[in-house]
Amino acid sequence: MTREEILNELKNVVAPYTTNKELLAGLNDQTDLIADLKINSANLVDIIIDAEAKYNIEIDYDSADKMINVGSCVDVIYDKINNK
Amino acid sequence: MLGTGNDIVALGAINVERTRQANFYSKILSLSEQQLYKELQPPMPFENFVWLAWSIKESAYKFLKRFMPDLVFSPTKIYITKLEPGLDAYTGIVQFNAHQLYFRTSIDQDYIFSVVNFSDDFTHTRWGISRIDSSDHTHQSSEVRKLLLCDLNDLQPGNNFTLDKSPHGWPVVMKGKQELPMPVSLAHHGHYVAYSFQIK
Q: Contacts of residue A73 in chain B, CB cutoff 8 Å?
């Protein structure tokens, strides 16, 4: 998968946890999950679990720490997919 | 070290089934914390324990972030080393590297609320919790600010306190154009909002 394909699919992963649908449509690497998408921090683990299931990967603690904005989420998922 | 950090988890907004799954709770609880749960007397539902731990860790993160602006919230790197049930709250110790903080957590049928402090004396820590009508983020955000300002202005009438945001993102209390050295913390989840602040 390319970064662009992951970015497009990531919209579906985070969609259940944000009400900011306008920003979701224009998601880019700099979009911050909490500050921009207003996702409650209590849902961050949900997003990691959903991403693990969607891409059939395991996201370890150190990788999860990096998943602050959309760009870092895509990077982590891209690395995990390509290092399986 | 003057600081504060709080968090609230609305139990109506959690996914009980998912919380009980190992791939979920293992991203929040360390092995030593899972052992703490097994030893806890009286026992509590496991999902409550997971979110109790989350609220303590998130509170500690908010407290420490003021002193370490680049800190990233990593639940398993902030760990609870002591947890004691009390008459109206659980108390104990939470650690991050060499930093040791104290927490006080109350569990209601509808929410879990935690506040952390640099000492185990919460005499000068104030907090408030309120149920709100809508879980919309904008509403949560405005209601929690209203609640905090109401308490601050009741406590010190005539000051017309307002709230602003620091360049790093945490809330600060303003009197006119002056930022006050009074740490405050805000939290919201579902239909619940909460604040804490440290008086001295």
A: none
Range of the domain at B39: 5-125
Same domain, B117 and B136: no
Number of structural domains found in chain A: 1
The CATH number of the domain where B89 resides is what?
3.90.470.20
CATH number, domain containing residue A24: 1.10.1200.10
> B54 vs chain A: nearest CA distance in angstroms?
8
- The interface pTM score, or ipTM, of the predicted complex is 0.86
Which DSSP string corresponds to chain B?
----EEEEEEGGGS-HHHHTSHHHHTTT--HHHHHHHHH-SS---HHHHHHHHHHHHHHHHHHHHTT-TT----GGGEEEEEEEE-SS-EEEEEEETTEEEEEEEEE-SSEEEEEEESSS--TTEEEEEEE-S---HHHHHHHHHHHHHHHHHHHSTTS--EEEE-TTS-EEEEETTEEPS--EEEEEETTEEEEEEE--
Residues 45-104 of B with CB under 8 A from A: 51, 54, 58, 72-77
Q: Tell me the chain B residues in contact with residue A48 when contact means C-beta distances shorter than 8 Å.
A: 27
| Chain B contact for A12 (CB, 8 A cutoff) | no
B22 touches chain A (CB under 8 A): no
Of B81, B110, B125, which marks where a domain is finished?
B125
pLDDT tens, residue by residue, B37-68: 999 999 999 999 999 999 999 999 999 999 99
pTM: 0.94
